[in-house]
Amino acid sequence: MVSISYPLILINFKAYSQSSGRKAVELAKVAEKVSKDAGITIAVAPQLTDLAIVASEVDIPVFAQHVDAVDPGSRTGHVTLEAVKDAGAIGTMLNHSERRVRADHVDFVVKKARKLGMITVVCADTPEVSAAMAALGPNMVAIEPPELIGTGIPVSKAKPEVVLNSVNLVRKVNPEVRVLCGAGITTGEDVVAAIKLGTVGVLLASGVVKAKDWEEAIRGLVEPLLK
Amino acid sequence: MVSISYPLILINFKAYSQSSGRKAVELAKVAEKVSKDAGITIAVAPQLTDLAIVASEVDIPVFAQHVDAVDPGSRTGHVTLEAVKDAGAIGTMLNHSERRVRADHVDFVVKKARKLGMITVVCADTPEVSAAMAALGPNMVAIEPPELIGTGIPVSKAKPEVVLNSVNLVRKVNPEVRVLCGAGITTGEDVVAAIKLGTVGVLLASGVVKAKDWEEAIRGLVEPLLK
Amino acid sequence: MVSISYPLILINFKAYSQSSGRKAVELAKVAEKVSKDAGITIAVAPQLTDLAIVASEVDIPVFAQHVDAVDPGSRTGHVTLEAVKDAGAIGTMLNHSERRVRADHVDFVVKKARKLGMITVVCADTPEVSAAMAALGPNMVAIEPPELIGTGIPVSKAKPEVVLNSVNLVRKVNPEVRVLCGAGITTGEDVVAAIKLGTVGVLLASGVVKAKDWEEAIRGLVEPLLK
Amino acid sequence: MVSISYPLILINFKAYSQSSGRKAVELAKVAEKVSKDAGITIAVAPQLTDLAIVASEVDIPVFAQHVDAVDPGSRTGHVTLEAVKDAGAIGTMLNHSERRVRADHVDFVVKKARKLGMITVVCADTPEVSAAMAALGPNMVAIEPPELIGTGIPVSKAKPEVVLNSVNLVRKVNPEVRVLCGAGITTGEDVVAAIKLGTVGVLLASGVVKAKDWEEAIRGLVEPLLK
Questions:
Q1: Residue A144 designated active-site
Q2: How far apart are CA A179 and CA A177, in angstroms?
Q3: Residues 6+ apart with CB under 8 A from A99
């Protein structure tokens, strides 16, 4: 079974052109460098088509952004967890606000990931959905109020009660499930605030991907954690 | 707030031609008659196009089979909970195996139903999904292993552990949520077995709708409960 | 086979609260009155839950806003064309920009509608999709650039070339298919412009539903057609 | 602009474990070898996660099995045509029966592919849908009756009229669009029959992927074309 250590900073490359193709590898290498220097886990979630090359070039955890709830076989245009594992990823995100799935599909993927020794990060938009996803037993739930995604207004400051309620409900339903938070995260201060609320780290995208200086942006996220 | 008393037999009319249009009203009237005679709650879930007429003709609880997670407004071809309430239904089923929805949509509908004083019955295919749905706080969760639907092999006998695990997990996550079970239910014996497993009743369709004699079929379901 | 005469004004009630429940019947009666006075076909597309009651109260063509591509049977929460016919509608809209469907589902519904003697109005967002939908042989294609829907900026004036290209491509692919246009239509002048571009009429919603005076709004649409 | 020469044999790797990961590269190399020997175009459509590595290892046309109708940007878990191009593919399949999409999404992808100089193969299940897809202007339409997929009963023999009607309707709607056929294709005789019906080649999957000897299977497909 793959394990992952906390705190965790998970960078979602989304379908941004800034983090696509060769640039996906470059960004992953910057993340790897900062991670090694700081001794803090930084994981990356590149696009599906970049997954194999990124996983082969860096020695940090690599996640898929999404997998379909299907087994290998006669399925065209679907992404199986098996394929994602073959590509070298250690796990997958699921149910992001830009790619919601049915609850039974989360159940399917989480159960299969457990069998394959892979890690699941299931997104949720409210404390109640966080609790629901926790009941399915993923490794992590990532609470992200969609209205803050991409705004630079950090959820850990703008809606601390949403994060706190998610942490509390998840703990009650399934204490083994860790909580990440996301949406609007750009600074180390936001990360510290997230961790103080009971999360094990953050999920972010534009705050890093669209930064002019990737290394500076990622260093800024981890530095306050080193004090 | 509408309330409902237990045990509950909820008859899903699906899109069966046998329970469509005028026949929907006839079947609902048979259910009403047996319900009044036996003093046991029998609810019906006709097709959306039959909802208003059925609700106006009978004095038993009427449910929609599904609603969309949208508010009234510029939405074409969607069914709002408000429209279902206007039509005279007291609540809605959601997430049936033939009409699965996203977890955040269940959250949306359950929260809105609470505001509108309506009742929600959310379906689930596994004990884990039952627990997940319970975390969203509907009135009832209906556990239905899809592979038994329409078979006449009752879940309460073929897979008692699935029902029992659902009851236990739901109780742990949210003790206010009641559990129904469905799939393969055709006889009163099946209903009794379901209730002994900790449910408050059953959800069924073909066992009644496709019966040659509706009244006999429904009487058969409630009779063992009267002893 | 049901027939319909042109020009046609088709009022989509959407899920607006202003045109829901009893108000759906009221609005349909206003449409009926203006239609009879003016001798011009005005059809209405109320919500699914209002379909039966509206169809029973007025003597103008009633359409569903959407149907699912399924046959009657073990289908929960779906709307069949058969149910829509039972409810008294003469046809259905399909593929509205707020409820897009797969091309094979349009094919399924159009073929079934033909067997059931029902009328289909399939929406499209570009001239090319208009042509594609025409290849499936519905009675009408309704071209609606989504960016103009609800704006009050009429497609017939703001994007006449989109309407014109749709008319020309549809004619080439299948000359038996009529073209409607929609999006931003509010006045009789818009309707006249639409007809001059080769359409047989318009599809509109907010321009009527949200008007303070329904009768005035609908009369305004048909009056220039009487000169 | 990328061009492709006909006849064309397009091998869909689906999500079969037999053609996943390193085996995807092996199978593509076998296809390349037979293609070079025979002088006939053989293209491959591996899984998304294998796309880049396959494209870098072989010198035959590589296609994606599916892309999403989105532009690069804030989109999680989606596959853009740009990413597929970056990965080295020359085009994409779309609307396979195992991954149907909306007609407006086909329109979006076909238009973008034209701008990016990429090739599109759009699947269809009936002659009418073939014509509809042709109206959107892809490079090829692939007619595949879903009920024959994976059966080994070749569409070119079992349902020649479906292929013939598709060819005729497509030609009428848009003579620049070529037609492939698929479903049940396993032998060179099936390919010859397909071409006699007016197609430019075949789309197949299990007939090659599940064959004990890939080279034998692929040689068998092209040999009758060499006579």
A1: yes
A2: 7
A3: A65, A66, D75, D76, D77, D78
* DSSP-based three-state secondary structure for C146: helix
Rg (CA), chain B: 16
CB contact under 8 A, C15 and B65: no
Q: How far apart are CA D34 and CA D40, in angstroms?
A: 8
Residues of chain D contacting A205 with CB distance shorter than 8 Å: 74, 76
Query: Residue B142's closest CA among B156, B117, B67, B158?
Result: B156
Determine the distance in angstroms separating the CA of B80 from the nearest CA of chain C, rounded to an integer: 7
- pLDDT tens digits, one per residue of D150-196: 787 887 788 889 999 999 999 999 999 999 998 788 899 889 999 99
CB contact under 8 A, A49 and D51: yes
Query: What distance in Å separates the CA atoms of residue A60 and residue A43, rounded to the nearest whole number?
Result: 6
Report pLDDT digits (tens) over B184-222.
888 998 899 999 999 999 999 999 999 999 999 999 999
Q: Which of C106, C124, C128 sits opposite D137 (nearest CB)?
A: C128
- In this structure, how many other beta carbons lie within 10 angstroms of the beta carbon of residue D97? 17
Substitution target in A76, A112, A144 with the highest count of D β-carbons within 10 Å is A76
Record: contact A102-B107, CB cut-off 8 A = no
Nearest by CB to A75, from D53, D71, D98: name it. Answer: D98
Among all residues of chain D, which has the CA nearest to that of A76?
A: D14
User: CA-CA distance, B132 to B103, in Å (whole number)?
Assistant: 9
What average pLDDT does range A136-142 have in this prediction?
Answer: 98
Q: Write out the H or E segment, with its range, that includes residue A202.
A: strand A201-204
**Is A173's CB within 8 Å of B100's CB?**
no
- The token duo for D183 is 């479903």
Q: Which residues of B40-78 are buried (b: 16+ CB within 10 A; e: fewer)?
A: bbbbbbbbbbbbbbbbeebebbbbbbbbbbbebebbbbb
Give the pLDDT mean for D200-209.
Answer: 94
Give me the catalytic one of A98, A105, A144, A176: A144
The reply to whether residue B15 touches residue C49, judged by beta carbons under 8 angstroms, is: no
Choice among D144, D147, D215, D223 that is catalytic: D144
Q: Is residue D2 very low, low, confident or very high in pLDDT (cuts 50, 70, 90)?
A: low
Any idea which residue has 């048979």 for tokens?
B30
The stretches of A117-227 forming alpha helices (DSSP H) are 127-135, 155-158, 160-173, 188-196, 206-209, 214-226
Q: How confident is the model at residue B148 (pLDDT cuts 50, 70, 90)?
A: confident
Mean pLDDT of C39-43: 96
Rounded Cα–Cα distance for residues D227 and B89 (Å): 70
Which residues in chain A are contacts of D74 at CB distance < 8 A? 14-16, 98, 149-150, 205-206
Residue of A44, A48, A49, A109 best to disrupt the D interface, most CBs of D under 10 A: A49
Handedness of CA D221, D223, D226, D227 (dihedral sign): negative
Alpha carbons C203 and C10: distance in angstroms, whole number: 5
DSSP letters, A34-102, are HHHHHT-EEEEE--GGGHHHHHHH-SS-BEES---S--SBS-SS---HHHHHHTT-SEEEE--TTS--B
Out of B21, B48, B93, name the one closest to residue C79 (CB): B48
- Amino acid at the residue B200: V
Tell me how crowded residue D49 is: count the other CB atoms within 10 A of its CB. 29
Chain D: touching chains (3 or more CB pairs < 8 Å):
A, C
Distance from the first to the final alpha carbon of chain C: 31
H or E element, residue D222: helix D214-226
- Residue C44 pairs in a beta bridge with C11, C62
Nearest to residue B208, comparing CAs of B1, B31, B21? B31
Instruction: Determine the distance from the C-alpha atom of residue B182 to the mean position of all C-alpha atoms in its chain, rounded to a whole number.
Output: 9
Give the C-alpha separation, C106 to C112, whole Å: 10
